[in-house]
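We give its fold:
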Amino acid sequence: MLLDPAYSQTYVEDCEVCCNPIELSVVFEEGELTAFEARELGQ
């Protein structure tokens, strides 16, 4: 997956393996990734 380090973001993407939706949250500070979280949705 490609991430834009210009800003933090949260979005939903389907898992490439099981096709279930996953909520992805990424936090960037000064262009550096400082936090990443993936959470399964809809279970």
